Queue: 3 jobs
Job 1
Amino acid sequence: MAQLKKITKARTPRDLERLVADDTERGWNVASRMNYISQDPRPFQMLLKFNNENERVRL
């Protein structure tokens, strides 16, 4: 099963971009679109999936 990580700390789209960039350098890939939850104090969220080198893409 794939390891997933949810970014929930972003208050602005720019914060989300910065957090995603930091995590992609650590081996995480974007697994969902950006979610905006208006009632949340940190409304911008995204799901990431860890890049597992053991998984191969089949063509």
Job 2
Amino acid sequence: MIRNTDAQITLILRAARAREQHSSILDRRHEMDQTDRRILALLQQDASRSVADIAAEVGLSQTPCWRRIQKLHATGVIDRTVAILNPESIGLGLTVFIEVEAADHSPEWLQSFTAKVSAMPEVLEIHRMAGDIDYLLRVAVRDMAHFDDFYRTLIDTVALKNVTSRFAMERVKATTAYPLER
């Protein structure tokens, strides 16, 4: 007989919910036609373009184009619209990828880790990983002194088993645009 702890059951339920959400997103993707994909490709390149410009580019009048964009927002395909900054121009030119091995794998630890690390403004992304590491963070800092301050705060904030930092020497490619071809 297999016995699961409450923590294991919680993790199993979270995984099932994540699969359901992923499945729902896939269902939404199948509802999109080629025109929606063209609209999304244009918006990923420049979300400040006018509806009139986008409509002309995809061969629609403005109102149907606007409705499609609103539907893409309402269904969560478009998560949000933001300005993408040049990190060097705002003094945050050092990118660090931090590999974290968790000291604990309980739901309580995960909740604490997620809340505390998410609140750190230098942290741009947190990914839960498969393989040798548990989490991968992408961090933007001014310089090595700023990183050292960040690192000390990180290890004082939450219990970690191991932390490995890797410093980006050059950003060879950076995009936020997802491939939309089918």
Job 3
Amino acid sequence: MITNFLRQRLKTLIPPKYLEMILRRRAINKMHKYGVEAFHAIDRVLTECHCPYWLEFGTLLGAYRDHAFIRHDTDIDLGIELKSFSLEILERMKKEGFEIHTPKVFSDDGRCYVFGGKYKGIVIDIHVCDIDDFYLTSYESRPLTNCSWKESAELGKNLIYELKYPYEGFKTIEFYDRKVLIPVNAGVHLSMLYGSNYMIPIEGDFSQGQQNSYGRLIPEDERVGIFYK
């Protein structure tokens, strides 16, 4: 058995580029093994909390294009409306076996924009969105420019983007034996995120899950009190 000391020692000996590849492959393998189980677990939590949710980001792309998780995806992204958020969700997640992330808060009013946790190593991010008659607005965090996620975490900051989509309501689809919501105009939603060729998988390209830079970067003075997960 490899001890934690030896594991950390090995990390210092492996070049960062290769270590990142190893860790990503490990995350992909976990997703293949436990992804559906993790999705069913968070579905139970949100259903029991009477919290409607929809598929977002790469999870939405996979459901819409592949009718499954993208085979190289490593996490699950969902959206809920602000009015549906409650601390009860976090308590139910703990009871279901989730390791809870610290909510990411980046405004003085203490509003939570993204929260989530891990289930058997699978990261689940739940994006707390605003909806009005015309737009669905979600919020996404990215690492600082020229920094890795780990480096951003050590600095206690990341970049926050406001993403606005035309809103036309939701429709129900089947996804891994569950009835789930996706945007009625999912094609528009996805093209804004991933470009007009989002329906064409890019073999071997792990970056086809990165957002186009159309979102508004929230200025530093509007990101007071951010907590990184």
